[in-house]
Amino acid sequence: MNIIDGKTIAQNIKDELAVKAKAFEQKHGHQVGLAVVLVGNNPASEVYVRNKVKACEQVGVRSLEYRLDETASEKEVIKLVKELNKNKEVNGVLVQLPLPRGLNEAKILSVINPKKDVDGFHIQNAGALFLGQSCLSACTPTGCIELIKSTGVPMEGKHAVVIGRSNIVGKPAAMLLLAQGCTVTICHSKTKDLPSITKQADILVVAIGRKEFVTGDMIKPGAIVIDVGINRHEGKLYGDVNFEQAKDVAGYITPVPGGVGPMTIAMLLSNTLKAAAK
Predict the structure, then answer these.
(1) What is the DSSP string of 203-257?
(2) What is the dihedral angle through the alpha carbons of 127, 267, 180, 205, rounded to the nearest 10 degrees?
(3) Structural domain boundaries of the chain?
(4) Which of 57, 189, 206, 220 is 20–30 Å from 165 (CA)?
(5) Architecture, CATH, for domain 139-261
(6) For residue 244, which phi and psi values (nearest 5 degrees)?
(7) Positions marked catalytic
């Protein structure tokens, strides 16, 4: 069993991005700019935003934070996003999810300029990904692909099973795996006899948000297991995979924390530099 070290892989990517960011700054006379819109004070969102700010500093990207009150109206959020779309020194715009109740997430995300949509959630980018066209793709699943590539195991022709069908991870992960030449099965809460399917997976991507849901006996010996889950329980972090059981069966596995998490932020910065280059 090999542990896939997301921290080290993400750091290597950030080192490469720092070189690109420096070149951009020298050419244009200003840093690449990433604007983060935070509505309300969700504690998990606060942590993510702090990590994003820290990563921006490491790479030499200017981080711009825009905070709106919990009670901000949809109109106010949309007005701010439109202003950021027009701002030439902002290359990437990110609206931190989840938004407070009463705000229409889809409507607000649809206002972001697709060329600045570094989260890859705009319908235009999601559609381009579905059609296999060049786009800014969702950060977490893109990070998953990089982690799989890091193993050196060719993806073409492999059976990839994705557990989860969210627009943020499950669906885009399936599209990205298809693009790599995998045969892809998507499983979810209505799937019958899940273990019989997961046991066929050469690559297993788990993103369902349930603590240690996937056990060792659900994994094909030698499989690559990518655990996207982050579940907080009694002050500790757990993945969607039972790591202790899985590590004796899997060929490669990501830990939680230190696997997919660092890659999500590295991919966000990668998208921001892509957006700036365009």
Answers:
(1) EEEE-S--TT-B-GGGS-TT-EEEE---EEETTEEE-SB-HHHHTTT-SEE--SS
(2) -100
(3) 29-113, 139-261
(4) 220
(5) 3-Layer(aba) Sandwich (3.40)
(6) -60, -40
(7) 52, 96, 119
For the record, the structure tokens of 37 come out as 């819109």
Q: Are 105 and 98 within 8 A, CB to CB? A: yes
**1.10.1240.10, 1.20.58.100, 3.40.50.10860, 3.30.420.360: which CATH number matches 29-113?**
3.40.50.10860
Whole-structure pTM value:
0.95
